[in-house]
Write a structure and sequence with these properties.
Belongs to the ATP phosphoribosyltransferase family. Long subfamily. Keywords: Amino-acid biosynthesis, ATP-binding, Cytoplasm, Glycosyltransferase, Histidine biosynthesis, Magnesium, Metal-binding, Nucleotide-binding, Transferase. It catalyses: 1-(5-phospho-beta-D-ribosyl)-ATP + diphosphate = 5-phospho-alpha-D-ribose 1-diphosphate + ATP. It comes from Streptomyces anatolicus. It is built from 9 helices and 15 strands. It is an alpha/beta fold. The protein has a 6-stranded mixed sheet, with helices on both faces. The protein has a 5-stranded mixed sheet with strand order 8-7-9-6-10, covered by helices on one side. A 4-stranded antiparallel sheet has the order 13-14-12-15. Helix 3 packs across helix 4. The longest helix has 18 residues. The radius of gyration is 24 Å and the shape is globular. The chain starts with a strand and ends in a 6-residue tail after the last strand. The model has no long low-confidence stretch (mean pLDDT 94).
Length: 282
């Protein structure tokens, strides 16, 4: 069986399980379950701490895993990303008291507090900056006020919590992260079970990004309509019973669907419908 690590808690857990369910895999019903066997799909899921997943995968104990790109980098594990999943996106930034620093070069000789020591140490080293890194488990905003560090490095979404602590971000982002599928570096990239798993997840990503659009239009307006809805290869065109009319079906990016419907209506298309796509293979 294919052995897959899945986050057991945190912001990665729910979306990861939801995506796996959409891909046709069984998922646990109780949060206390640590292992779930899906015999129909020949997969065994192991629910682990997100920070530990890269370690297990790099050791070869598990074939692949779903974790955060930030957690992979922070762990220093010998594993690589094979598929970005598009959820749990985050940005890591430096922050300090206003006027303290404007760029990473200003961190030389200073102490940086963070919960992601591996990420920050690697970033500082790659930038040629000699600074100390202090590891804290959460609530790093208070580190400066309490004199533990002069700078912090943390996930920044809106920046509200930093402003409330009297801090401001500076410099370029340390890194941007999202949920990813990982495998051990150098593992067999042609493993058919892994490839099938990836195709299923890719199908979910496409299904979430597109809608199926159906509409009727006059034959003389077909070229204009097809230009608006080119689809992936080409739209499906079918003649209607009423002469001079055709039915068109095409995949359209979900975020553009309303605008496309407006444009189709403007050229005379009617009975314009959109439906969700629940599964897809390209």
């Amino acid at each position: 069986m294919l052995r897959i690590a899945v986050p057991n808690k945190g912001s990665l857990s729910g979306p990861a399980s939801a995506m796996l369910h959409e891909a046709g895999y069984q998922q646990r019903k109780e949060s206390k379950e640590l292992v779930l066997v899906d015999p129909e799909n020949e997969v065994e899921f192991f629910y682990l701490r997100p920070k530990d997943i890269a370690i297990y995968v790099s050791a070869g104990r598990l074939d692949i895993g779903i974790t955060g790109q930030d957690l992979l980098v922070d762990s220093g594990a010998d594993a690589e990303v094979i598929l970005p999943l598009g959820f749990a996106r985050s940005t890591f930034r430096f922050a300090a008291k206003p006027g303290t620093a404007t760029g990473i070069e200003d961190l030389a000789g200073k102490t940086v507090a963070t919960s992601y020591e591996g990420i920050v140490a690697k970033h500082l080293a790659n930038s040629g900056v000699d600074a100390s890194v202090v590891h804290l488990d959460g609530a790093v905003e208070t580190a400066i006020e309490l004199g533990v560090a002069q700078v912090i490095a943390d996930v920044v979404e809106t920046g509200t919590s930093l402003r409330n602590a009297g801090l401001e971000v500076f410099g370029e982002p340390i890194m941007k992260s999202e949920a990813v599928v990982i495998r051990r570096t150098g593992a067999d990239g042609d493993d058919p079970k892994v490839q099938q798993f990836l195709r299923r997840l890719q199908g979910v990503l496409v299904a979430r990004s597109y809608v199926m659009m159906d509409y009727d239009c006059r034959a003389e307006h077909l070229e204009q309509a097809v230009a608006l809805t080119p689809g992936l290869e080409s739209p499906t065109i079918s003649p209607l019973h009423n002469e001079g009319w055709v039915a068109v079906r095409s995949m359209v990016p979900a975020k553009e669907a309303q605008r496309v419907m407006d444009d189709l209506y403007a050229i005379g298309a009617r009975a314009i419908l959109t439906t969700a796509i629940h599964a897809c293979r390209l």
